Amino acid sequence: MRGTRIHGISHRTIGRILTALGLLLALQLGTLVAPAYACGCGAMVTNRMARLGVDRETSVVRWDEQGGAEGRGGTEQIVMRFTVHGDADQAAWIMPVPHRADVDLADPALFDELDRLTAPEHRTRDHFWPRGSDWPFAPGDMDGAVGAAPRPGGPGVGVVGRERLGPFDVARLTATDPAALGDWLHDNGFELSDRLSEALRPYVDQKWEYVAVRLAPERDGAPLYGALDPIRIRFANDRPVYPMRLSRLAATPQSLGLYVLAGHRMEPKDAIGGTRPEVLFAGAVTPPPAGELARLAGPGKVFLTAVDQSFPEPSRIDGDHELVRAAADTPYRQIVWKDRLWTVGAVPLWLLTTGALLALLAAGGGYAVVRSRRARPGVRSAA
Q1: CA–CA separation, 360 vs 251, rounded Å?
Q2: Which pLDDT tens digit goes with each residue over 346-370?
Q3: Which of 206, 162, 203 is nearest to 181 (CA)?
Q4: CA neighbours within 13 Å on the CB side: how many for 42?
Q5: Helix/strand/coil (H, E, C) string of 141-186?
């Protein structure tokens, strides 16, 4: 006996639809409950009932070497900007630093200046024969397409300072125990997973300090979304380093764009578990006389290196990015080629040429047939 039908739809079909909707609802609830940890330089921490993911992390490292011939010791500045998505209306991230740090806001225009300086060079190259993006291989045009104040820390945690910077509540911390640092965050309204506590242990063992940043939109209840205001962190260091170890807790693939300003071309020492770092630009640049880039780089020329890297499996990240001097200050700029098909008017030149050649061959073949017929014995032309 066939199942009954409601308005032409069987009960079996309705059951399948309800099952699918139930699975989708369960999946959505799972993503709401699961905490999101994402951040190339630290760990993004948010309320467990909210979602917050980092789509892109773009940072600038300014290394001012002061160690003389040995090249040891100097001042490091890191300016970072996150592009986030989710429904969280507040969150925090933690950045380990090797020494006492100063924190202030940076101008978002810095990244616009760097984008202009490192933009790829666009060139056009002409070709005769059609390629993959040209007719008849592919359709398309003829040209082709190319909040509240933090509470004092308990035993094992010291609050060095606290500042309110725009939408950020910044606390500079010391910690001798990862669990105590977790308690401090919990007391200030945020959850901290056991995995993150363990991930902080190498920094605690090395006696690093921490910059904890509490983010909250200017309008109460508005979700954090899009590009956040950049923050600058300045500290002394023995060698330039970009902290990445905590990113191994991220649940989704991560993307890092890194600009390095120094006296020479710099590059990551190794891949630390991600894809091979790709250099997008390298060259000596002269910053404009005013603006955020001039403030960060200082007077005169500075060598700028732009690096891009992906982390398809963040759990494989096994350390921090140590930035080292390249073998040579070789300049490099990406070249983006646009292939342009030779045309006469709107007609491809190859089509006109081959068409004319085929016509000539056809005419030549016809002439040869006529001559052949005239040359046969006994064949006469009609009177």
Answers
A1: 66
A2: 667 666 677 677 777 777 666 666 6
A3: 203
A4: 22
A5: CCCCCCCCCCCCCCCCEEEEEEEEECCEEEEEEEECCHHHHHHHHH
Over residues 98-148, the pLDDT tens digits come to 999 999 999 989 999 999 999 988 777 776 566 655 555 554 443 333 344
pTM beyond 0.90: no
Cα–Cα distance measured from residue 349 to residue 357, given in angstroms and rounded to the nearest whole number: 12
Closest CA relative to residue 161, chosen from 203, 197, 106, 209? 209
Closest CA to 96 of 197, 211, 174, 179: 211
What is the DSSP track for 221-263? TPPP-EEPPPEEEEEEESS-EE--GGGGG-SS-EEEEEEEEES
- DSSP assignment of 28-87 equals HHHHHHS-----SSSEEEE-TTS-EEEEEEEEEEEEEE-SGGGT--EEEEEEEEEEEEES
Q: Distance from CA of residue 283 to its chain's centroid?
A: 21
pLDDT at residue 49 above 60?
A: no
Alpha helices (runs of H) in 275-317, residue ranges in sequence order:
292-297
Closest residue by Cα to residue 258 from 304, 324, 310, 307: 307
